[in-house]
Amino acid sequence: MTQALTALRDTSVSHLAAIALTFALGAGIVFVAGHVQAAALHDAAHDMRHATGFPCH
After folding, report:
1. What percent of the chain shows pLDDT beyond 70?
2. Which residues cross the membrane (predicted)?
3. Which of 25, 52, 30, 53 is closest to 41 using CA atoms?
């Protein structure tokens, strides 16, 4: 019984870590692409910025 609970806890921690890492990576990509001022990235992300509500000019 103890082994089963330990395995369940380890799996839950792994899932939470994966979710947190995925959220951090996604948020980083969105905010970096949304706020960067480089002309090439601005032009590449222009339509997506407006679609997600980021002001860009």
Report:
1. 67
2. 12-33
3. 30
Q: Please write down the long-range contacts of 36-44, taking CB distance under 8 Å and 24 or more positions apart.
A: none
Tokens of 5: 């609970």
Angstrom distance (rounded) from CA 49 to CA 29: 12
Domain coordinates in residue numbering, the chain = 18-57
Rounded Cα–Cα distance for residues 46 and 54 (Å) = 9
Provide the 8-state DSSP code for 36: -
Average pLDDT value for the chain: 76
